[in-house]
Amino acid sequence: MARRPGVFVRGLSMEEGRKLQRVTRTAKDPVKLRRAIVVLMSGQGQAVRDITSLMQVSEDYVRDVIHAFNERGFAALDPKWSGGRPKTIGDKIRERICLIARTSPADWGITAFSTWSLSKLRDHLLARGTVATISRETLRRILHAGGVSWQSTTTWKASTDPDFIAKMHRVLDLYDHPPGDGRVICVDEFGPLNLMPRKGKAWRLRTRPQRLRATYNRNDGVMHMLAALDLATGHISYRIRPRKRRQEFLSFLKTLRTRWPGEKLYIICDNFSPHRHTDVRTWCAGNQVELVFVPTYSSWLNWIESEFAALRYFALNGTDHRSHTEQNTAIGSYIRWHNARAEPKTGFATDSPIRTWTYYLAKAA
């Protein structure tokens, strides 16, 4: 059998050569990139067989690309996508498939499993006659196009507070209109502060993640942080203590009272039992301190929670402190950095639907 004649790209100018090199470095479309490499290799004098071996494509493909470039130039590098063959599964059936995927197998009398896999969903669709034939890949594409994705189950804890709306509006009013006779302080506990490796994120070389130990003990016990966010300045005050009883909470309130003498303090806090202790309430009543409780299971209304999230992300995640002194120092360093850049806190959840609630949404949508 005679050997097929060699095929090479036509002579390339210097400018064409530079343009091909740019395409091979910057092209995001894999088809365009592959075609440009084929043309560039041919322009360098490599035979079709050598290009085939390196690129893992057929000889006919290499020859077609070279002939097309010789005829049409750089326009031959751009893939001309066609619409493909007509859909064999209509839009109505696709909507039906997405609807079934969002149901539970139990809804169809199937008790052997609690969730669909692609294979189980495909078998169910075929058994019901929803489709005559369908592959798992086609099913995956239909679900993706329909906005249906594989997601983890989440939970929702509904508030049982009958005065939810009134309490929420009280807190929001203090945020929106700070009283002229004092200042609003958001107080809460953060912790427990264990000595443990904490997962986090960092800039690293690809495939070289930071490694942390997987095992640890609690021989050194845990600590707890009491913190207060002053909305007028954005500053955070804190204390780290081995326990979080009403004694520690009351002592912290006394410290805040000393810091702002002559001003009434409006303390936003949750319904943790030490916050509601008789000793705490009695002291507050006699020292110009008003405790404003958020509704039950609504800690997200306490503005300090967002500051805790930032503290956890920037000061603790990705660390593996071996002593409480080391960990407490890291927390203190972050809070000093935060306070040096703090600004007054305004505009809490201004675009949130909670602003229009007239009754409490007791379950997740």
From TrEMBL:
<dbReference type="GO" id="GO:0003676">
    <property type="term" value="F:nucleic acid binding"/>
</dbReference>
<dbReference type="Pfam" id="PF13565">
    <property type="entry name" value="HTH_32"/>
</dbReference>
<dbReference type="InterPro" id="IPR012337">
    <property type="entry name" value="RNaseH-like_sf"/>
</dbReference>
<feature type="domain" description="Tc1-like transposase DDE">
    <location>
        <begin position="183"/>
        <end position="319"/>
    </location>
</feature>
<dbReference type="InterPro" id="IPR036397">
    <property type="entry name" value="RNaseH_sf"/>
</dbReference>
<dbReference type="InterPro" id="IPR047655">
    <property type="entry name" value="Transpos_IS630-like"/>
</dbReference>
<dbReference type="InterPro" id="IPR009057">
    <property type="entry name" value="Homeodomain-like_sf"/>
</dbReference>
<dbReference type="InterPro" id="IPR038717">
    <property type="entry name" value="Tc1-like_DDE_dom"/>
</dbReference>
<dbReference type="Pfam" id="PF13358">
    <property type="entry name" value="DDE_3"/>
</dbReference>
<protein>
    <submittedName>
        <fullName>Transposase</fullName>
    </submittedName>
</protein>
